[in-house]
Amino acid sequence: MFILPPGSNTSADFLRISRSSIDDIISQNLNALITPARVGFDPNSTSAPSPRRPYRSRVDPSSCKSFKDDILFPSWQSRSDVLGYCTSVATSPDPDDPDLASREVESARDQERVVDERLDPYSGRFFPRETRTEILAGIIRDERGVENIIRDRSWSVISERCGDRDSGERWEDALNDWRDRRSRRG
Length: 186
Prior knowledge:
The chain is mainly alpha-helical. The protein is built from six helices and no strands. It has helices at residues 10-21, 26-31, 61-90, 100-112, 132-162, 171-185. α1 (10-21) packs antiparallel against α3 (61-90) and α3 packs antiparallel against α5.
């Protein structure tokens, strides 16, 4: 069975929605973890411009850990699972490919063609149409690139806001540690 028939974007939609609900609003999610001020609003605080702080408010470390373990990493894992499944589909033969016969005929016709490249230097080129699995493989490659960029950005924000910037831990290592802890639990 083929996961992305032409015209369908089910997996791409899942990835887009998942990213928009977690990673695209990572700052808002972290802001929601900050305890509100204990003292009421002071109107004098807005009377004069204040210098911009180099770092935004820090988030409580236990809240950060909980956010990463309960929300962020499970979201990343589910997207990794979808990309892994799509990769396995893309690397498998597609017995139901509706364009297979037409591509074979096109390929046979191209092999029989006699081309004089002196008359038309471009006529010797043959650009076969991609199979559905090749198209899917290209989409998955692009989505993996997008996923890495988004995870880098999200991890940078988390490191800054949660005070982990100095630890130097990469998101790949943190996600693998989370996977290991989860697998040990059962």
